[in-house]
Amino acid sequence: MCPSASSVPSSGQDSLMDTNTYHWVDQFQVFLTQSFHEGALISEATNSVEIRAGQSSHFKDNMLQPATAADPSIWDTGDGAGPNTSFGVGGIPNTLHAGIKQSTGNGRDSIIYVDPNVHIATGLIQLTPKSSYLCFWKMIHPNETIAHITPSEGFEWSFDPGQTTRTLRFGYEVPDSQSGNESPTWFQE
Fold it and tell me: Distance from the CA of 7 to the CA of which of 43, 67, 79, 145 falls in 20 to 30 A?
């Protein structure tokens, strides 16, 4: 954020926010977990396996096997899913749930999804990560015992297929120049 910028400009202040560039890293791992319920910390019950679109991994001999290319005809293709965007996990015991980790860079991963459903061990679960995000302002109201966080209305955006970088700016149509009563908003560049 600009040192002189603000999401609520004062009189005569046109500079609201520097431009931010976000990067999508298309690197995933799948794992299985037993700990899935509201408020639970997710811990892996199996090994993690690197996986790419069009591949599947199967649970066998108490571990996930390395991901291999799957027959393209097995994929559901609705709502952006399919062999170019989805991967699968099969043979999951009904006591475990499939989870996805995504690379966040610098050799680190973050859990982005755990399937809440119980499946029959012979089926293949198709997973399709969505590259959609929500940016919003938040105001933190601290007091002596609790911090109350009030988010603003958000701006939802996503990476287009094959795109790994997106630049966003919050401000006016002409950067750092308010036109009349123009309200600041989000812009994709």
Answer: 145
The DSSP-derived string for 107-136 is TEEEEEEE--S---TTSEEEE----EEEE-
Helix, strand, coil abundance in the chain, percent, nearest 5:
0, 40, 55
Which 3 state secondary structure label does DSSP give 73? Answer: helix
- Token pair in block for residue 174: 């002409």
Spatial separation of the C-alpha atoms in residues 188 and 22, rounded to whole Å: 11
pLDDT in tens, 134-154: 777 666 666 666 655 565 667
Checking if the pLDDT of 12 tops 80, the result is no
Query: What one-letter code names the amino acid at 40?
Result: A
* Phi, psi (deg, nearest 5) at residue 73: -75, -10
φ/ψ of 60, rounded to 5, equals -155, 140
Q: pTM for this structure?
A: 0.69
- Distance between CA atoms of 67 and 110, rounded to whole angstroms? 19
Mean pLDDT of 93-121: 86
32 close to 46: Cβ distance less than 8 angstroms: yes
The DSSP output letter for 183 is P
Report whether pLDDT(27) > 80.
yes
What are the tens digits of pLDDT across the range 165-179? 888 887 788 887 888
